[in-house]
Design brief:
Helices cover 37% and strands 21% of the residues. By secondary structure, it is α/β, with parallel strands linked by helices. The longest helix is centred in the first third of the chain and has 14 residues, at 27-40.
């Protein structure tokens, strides 16, 4: 199997300090959390940013400030910015941080119910974001919440809007999308037609750990972090993002799966 790429989603747009007191919010807090996660085994940082009062924002200046702080501490880690933002954010604001040309950015592939909200992604906006990423040399991570979104990616690749190798992230456990039932991950992976794809899984809440182990055994990659899950065990809050990364690194070692360094992750995903 290829080395395991661990992505750490350190903050997200929905998690609050009230629910997770250790949530990194300020640029320095996020940079420290990223550095700790990289030392624990992460090679990609999935990045949402917040204002100092905790409000999610797509403000370019804030992204730039956080990225500079992370780069000062972790020069080779890949930064993957979110173009999803907070639910309800305009597509114009969601696209603005692409101007910073990070190595990667998330690309959500469809509209869906998202808890009590609706996560809106019009087809023309999906194509627009993909085209902008291609123009800027940014590798999209294709966010898949249900099987129809996977078919959308295949059509976009056939049309030349997306270029291989494609990198999918199966986000399972969001109310409104596919659950974290292990059969759902098996089904999604079975739909990948060739070896010209990379895939990982982000399990939400209680699904994070079991899906991570399943992905490691199946040859996929893993995302953990406070965006998706704030607990270490049931009822026990995680102390840090790094604690969640370190557990995956330790389990990968026990399973005989090498953990990718940032350099190895870049090579696997064809990112210079």
């Amino acid at each position: 199997m290829n080395p395991l790429i661990i992505t750490c989603a350190i903050t997200g747009a929905e998690t609050t300090r009230e629910k997770q007191p250790n949530l990194p919010i300020t640029p320095m807090e996020q940079a420290v959390a990223a550095e700790e996660a990289v030392k624990a085994g992460a090679s990609i940082i999935h990045l949402h940013v917040r204002e100092d009062d905790g409000r999610p924002t797509q403000r370019v200046e804030r992204f730039q400030e956080v990225i500079q702080e992370i780069r000062a501490r972790c020069p080779r880690v890949m930064i993957q910015i979110s173009t999803g933002g907070a639910v309800g954010e305009s597509i114009e604001n969601r696209a603005k941080p692409l101007s910073l040309r990070p190595e990667m950015a998330s690309l959500n592939l469809g509209t869906m119910n998202f808890g009590e909200d609706v996560f809106y992604n019009h087809p023309k906006d999906i194509v627009g974001l993909a085209s902008r990423m291609r123009q800027l040399g940014i590798t999209p991570e294709l966010e898949v919440y249900e099987a129809g979104m996977l078919e959308t990616a295949f059509r976009m690749a056939k049309q030349g809007i997306l270029r291989e190798p494609l990198h999918f992230q199966f986000v399972l456990g969001v109310p409104g999308g596919m659950s974290g039932d292990p059969r759902n991950l098996v089904h999604l992976v079975s739909l990948l037609p060739t070896n010209q794809f990379h895939w990982g899984v982000a399990g939400v809440g209680r699904f994070q750990l079991p899906l991570a182990v399943q992905a490691m055994v199946m040859g996929g990659h893993v995302r953990v972090g406070f965006e998706d899950n704030i607990f270490y065990h049931k009822g026990e809050l995680a102390q840090s993002n790094a604690q969640l990364v370190a557990r995956i690194s330790r389990l990968a070692h026990e399973l005989g799966r090498e953990v990718a360094t940032p350099e190895q992750a870049r090579e696997l995903l064809k990112i210079s």
